[in-house]
Amino acid sequence: MLSLHNVEKVYFTEENAVQAVTDINLTVSDGEFISFIGPSGCGKTTVLSMIAGLFPPTSGRIVMHDKEMTGYSKETGYMLQEDYLFPWLTIRKNIELGLIITGMHNKTTTMETMSLLKQLGLEDKADAFPSELSGGMRQRAALVRMLAPNPSLLLLDEPFSALDYQTKLKLEDLVYTTLKDQQKTAILVTHDLSEAIAMSDRIYLFSSNPGNIDNVFEVPETFRNKRPLEARNNPDFHPFFQRVWKELENLEVPNTNTS
């Protein structure tokens, strides 16, 4: 579905050029859920933003469904750490914004969106304002808004990091099952290794300075297709966590060997 070929991003200032990421090559198949992890500043969100079409790569190609991407695509949905719901609009009006922007707002799509709102337990909050909802409810509303235009590729940039732990675990399960039921393809950027393992089919580990893919981990089949809460309780989860954690820790600890 998606492929990146030798993607590089350089930021230019008046004084110098900063290479954010380089030589990024990856492929994502239809229906896959993959995660980006790595040290802070390694370019995970930069790559996600280029896939979203927010800005172009300095060099390289991003291809979706055999067509090179040159900007924003209606096939892509984006969910961020902040819900960015407009406080002066009701939840109903907020979740219809994506339909309006993409020119898909009609009676049928509105009914489908309200049905999804009901599935996620927010039917009685349709006419409430964002300030009347908890953080978890707001993120569920943001999820409905993202799904309303029916994108095929979902980009998730730390969407659970601002939530308390119990709400975070519940929302992980909800998002995972919703995306699987709708057969969506998803890319998650997260600093939470447990979250990446519990939700993903495959994990890309980034190194930094400049950002680059250091390793790729296939999540074990024994818990790959289980809900995140079930995956965390699988006996194979902890050994796999330790394996990936060791690789991540090696990247975050500076090499003091001067020989």
Automatic annotation (TrEMBL):
User: Per its UniProt record, what Gene3D superfamilies does this chain match?
Assistant: P-loop containing nucleotide triphosphate hydrolases (3.40.50.300)
Q: Which UniProt keywords apply?
A: ATP-binding, Nucleotide-binding, Transport
What is the organism field in this record?
Salibacterium salarium
Can you say what this protein is called? ABC transporter ATP-binding protein
Recorded hits in InterPro entries, A to Z, give: AAA+_ATPase (IPR003593), ABC_transporter-like_ATP-bd (IPR003439), ABC_transporter-like_CS (IPR017871), ABC_transporter_ATP-bind (IPR050166), P-loop_NTPase (IPR027417)
> What GO molecular function terms would the record report?
ATP binding; ATP hydrolysis activity
Q: Which CDD domains match?
A: ABC_NrtD_SsuB_transporters (cd03293)
Annotated PROSITE patterns: ABC_TRANSPORTER_1 (PS00211), ABC_TRANSPORTER_2 (PS50893)
| Start and end residues of each ABC transporter domain | 2-233
By its UniProt entry, which SUPFAM superfamilies does this protein fall under? P-loop containing nucleoside triphosphate hydrolases (SSF52540)
